[in-house]
Please model this.
Amino acid sequence: MSSVAVLILTHNEEKHIGRALRAVAPFASEVFVVDAFSSDKTVDIASAHGANVLSNPWTNYSKQFQWGLDNAPIKADWVMRLDADEVIEPELAEEIATKLPKLGQDVAGVNLKRKHIFLGRWIRHGGRYPLILTRIWRRGQGRIEDRWMDEHIMIWGGRTVLFDAPFSDNNLNDIGFFTEKHNKYATREAVDVLNQRYGLFLQDVVLKTEASSFQASAKRFLKERVYNRVPFPISTLCYFLYRYIFQLGFLDRREGLIYHFLQGYWYRFLVGVKVLELDRAIRQFPTAEEKCIELARLTKLDIVSD
Model:
């Protein structure tokens, strides 16, 4: 049988971590939790479930996850990326346990289907299902992109396959947490947009189809080559209408209206506003280093010019 190590990042995730660990128990041979010094019961719960807990100060998701890959004593054949608020459902757990040992050596990664649960409803439309993401890879044949936002696992040395059963993203926090989290996401995404515009710091290689899922690489291409070049009042409105009408987001009912409006319009509009605001603040500085210093001051992010 193939062994699987699950790597989870946490910071004050006492609502979710026990649920996540119980869900991976049927197939995981190793579980590593990289905690950013939680002040709640996250570490106690993780330890009680048998997880190996490591601590590291937070910079961003990408650097924290790569730190975990580099420092956790992983011995398993395969590695899985899982967020604390995600759940591997029983059908997928069985599929992983059954199919993973049968994969040939030419397979380096496994793509999984993610479904999003919002206010208790599975958001099936608006292009939100299935979101196909590379989440399992052979140890030593994958890493995470070095980005401030929208980071993906990149693999090498083989092809990827797609498993059938989905896993769920089901955050149990309230709508205030959702909007606060997306406000922080918007700042990080704005930094990536400005970096693409000005070349402020070293950017990771372009996401390739052969290194990740086709869906992820196609979305990245459209976002950076088309969407980000359209004035944001136009691009955000068109994106929301495309999701809500043409991709049938309205079929997700009231919860879908709330979700598609907040995540598909409000959030995208907020990113555009932050790009505008930060661009106006840093464009006066002549060098990339000076722009980075000002951007770090304004965003309170640890941005360093290369």
